[in-house]
Amino acid sequence: MPQAASRTPPGRRASVLAFDLGASNGRALVGELLEDREGRRLAVTEIHRFPNGPVETCGHLYWDILRLLQKVKAGIRKAFLEGFRPESFGIDTWGVDFGLIDRNGELVGNPYHYRDSQTDGLIDEVAALVGRRELYEQGGLQFMPFNTIYQLYAMAKARSPRLDAAETLLLTPDLIAYLLTGRKVCEFTMATTTQLLHPLTKTWNTALMERLGIPSRLFLDVVPPGTCIGPLSDAVCRELGVPPVEAVAVATHDTESAAAAVPAGGEPFVYLVCGTWSLLGTELDRPLLTPQAMELAYSNEGGAGGTWQLLKNIMGLWILQECRREWEEQGLPFAWSDLVDAARKAPPFRSLIDPDDLRFYAPDSMLEEIRGFCRGTGQPEPETQGQVVRCILESLALRYRQAVDQLELLTGRSFRGLHMVGGGIQNELLCRFTANALARPVWAGPVEASAVGNMLVQLIALGHCRDLREARALVRDSFPLAAYEPDPAEQSSWEEARRKFAGICGAG
Fold first, then answer.
1. DSSP 263
2. Which of 191, 272, 315, 364 would staple 355 via disulfide (CB 3.0–4.6 Å)?
3. What is the CATH number of the domain that holds 437?
């Protein structure tokens, strides 16, 4: 076992290890539950960070899942080398993607990446076979091309030999947990991202699978978040020189882990998980499957603690990330702070885009698509880096306002302000724009919300927190929140921008 001096501080009650794996990078963080005279708090230490991204070959986009596994193993070993003694670990990742396991327990090829083109055009094709209303009532999700149902339908349609060879389907966090423990599970929150789990019965929709040629034998029974999976396998323990740490099936969809970490009190609240994607939603005790929710493109995803999250998937900071990547390829590297400063100095509301237009989903050139959208809607094209960035940030803020209004309409609730969590809240300009667009306060924090929510579910599973309410109180006591108030002097211009945005983008 790696030798190191213990990092156990006075008053430590528990230590857990969280892996938060996103579409562009992964992180390993240790959470320590501390207790002293002033109460309890959660101390978080990042111990490992690494890039993640797709690999393009043979006409498809894939995840390099074995490389990702090695990075997770390195994080486990590093935790012990640095003197931590985690009682358990949990893994959360992006949704929808999966690996296939054959009858010998081996992985059948690399998993497809959710932006792979195999699902192009399949939303309409499946809807024609099944019916949009039936699909929504039985799957609960907005119609997104990357949903698991379309990936599997594409493979069935192509008569993929992978499906013939497969015995079990494991969604990404469950797949990595299996490769570490040898135990197969299917965690509930991730299962709800497939569009194949019936939201009312919480069982697999085998009848729908049969209609689409998807083999139902692949699917395991669903387990709730907080289920103990089992310890690291003997082989992994020997390889890493660590004890058999217990794996916990947390709220394995990163959005749901982040939602668990929203530091809200007892009143109804609305939140934004802000990163590569923007997920804006509210928490319910049952799914909302109305025709209006379908038409407004809201998803019902299972959450921690028996909750349901009614949320909209918005394209998010992916648009800005791709622009920055293009500038770097052109020999124009910019730090994020430089881009934000340039946006701050650019003229307001010169051009706006619909962030959810599918042209921004996986373009060859994000910059050209932004220019093309502006040309097509009779707006001036953004010319400078500052104009591009301001266009993106203002458009996102206005989209958030639109989504909050829709949630109030759908639920009959009134929200006092917006909780923003995730890495995107480090962009203070976006937070300020959002407060102005909403004409109500924004409370930002914590940054590492998915990792923190991951830790909270582990602490509940280990008996250190009673429930989600107590866990959220721990977040409020442990992490500072930044408050952004709308600027009264700017409200008239933002109101005019809201009208312009609605005219350009519609109500969707």
1. -
2. 315
3. 3.30.420.40
Is residue 254 among the annotated active site residues?
yes
Measured from the Cβ of residue 83, the count of other Cβ atoms closer than 10 Å reads 14
421 and 305 share a domain? yes
Is residue 33 domain-resident?
A: yes
Segment (H or E) for 451: helix 449-461
Number of domains, the chain: 2
Cα(441)–Cα(451) distance, integer angstroms: 25
Cα pseudo-dihedral 18, 424, 339, 428, rounded to 10: -120
Per the residue annotation, which of 20, 254, 354, 356 is the catalytic one?
Answer: 254
- Residue 162 belongs to what domain range? 12-249
What is the DSSP-derived secondary structure letter of residue 112?
A: B
pLDDT digits (tens, 9 = 90+) for 15-71: 999 999 998 899 999 999 999 888 899 999 999 999 999 999 999 999 999 999 999
Q: Is the dihedral of CA 111, 115, 121, 123 positive or negative?
A: positive
The answer to whether residue 453 sits within a structural domain is: no
| 311 in the same domain as 198 | no
DSSP code string of 353-414: --TT-GGGTS-S-HHHHHHHHHHHTT-PPP-SHHHHHHHHHHHHHHHHHHHHHHHHHHH---
